[in-house]
Amino acid sequence: MFHEGRKAYITYLLIILNVVIYVIFSWRNSFLYIDTNVLTEYGFSPIDMRGLRGLETLITSMFIHGNIFHIFFNMFVLYYFGRELETLLNGFRYLILYIISGVIGSLFYSITLPVIYSTFNIYAVGASGAISGLLGGFFILYPHRILTLCIFTPIPICGSFNASIFLMIWIFINLVYGIFIGGNIAFFAHIGGFVGGVVLAYVLARNIVMEMLPRDKYLYEILMSYKGRGLGFFSKTISLLLISIPMIIVIFNFPHIYYISDYYGITTQIMFSSAICILVSITSIYIVLFKDKELDIS
Prior knowledge:
Elements: H1 9-26, H2 36-42, H3 53-60, H4 68-89, H5 91-117, H6 128-141, E1 146-151, E2 157-162, H7 163-181, H8 187-212, H9 217-224, H10 232-252, H11 254-264, H12 267-290, H13 292-295
Antiparallel strand pairs: 1-2
Helix pairs in contact: 1-4, 4-5, 4-6, 5-6, 5-8, 5-11, 5-12, 6-8, 7-8, 7-10, 8-12, 10-12, 11-12
């Protein structure tokens, strides 16, 4: 449901900007992948937090994509989910949700990186953390929207689910890959962006949603008591478990993270990032538990 009279200009501009940047940095490679030096110049690595460069690359890394598949899938998801959220939030609030979710995703990436790889010296690029924030916003605002998920095996398997179930499957896949498989994808940045998106959607959209609800107190209470509204017991239970796992991993591996951060001279920065990520996670748990009905406009 797009909101009448509103256009998704920021979403379109973000897609154009990302594509143009990708073309500029990949044309030498037949547009298949970017130059290696671009990754280290504009990508984000936690060791950059030793100076101002870390603040710069937290932003620049969101607009760099490694290869043609990376840019294609990110822009597809941005187009699909971004337009509706932008028409709800309007441009400025939507852009705040997008950018800050990307930053939070990078912070989650920073504190979980040494758990998986025992180093901070790995660069990350892409809009995935920011776009995951849009998914987190969609999760809490449109939990009952029907979405279709396809798994491309030799015989494609597709199924339709509520958005809350669809996105929990997506978080679960990211957790499994992030913990057990790893590779060159920042899976925990996706989860961090998603968690940040839940919190930011509450902060940025609550007043807008409240204006859409009945002003009569009696009607409002009837609506809030409706059992089909909000996430429901099953979705709440599973989402709380999935949101909690990254922070549980960080807490149990805290001595190791501290040791590696001390080796690279970024202990203060990593401790500060950890505090932010834990606070955001706890806030998102509170919102999922107690504020989901207030935000459901699906």
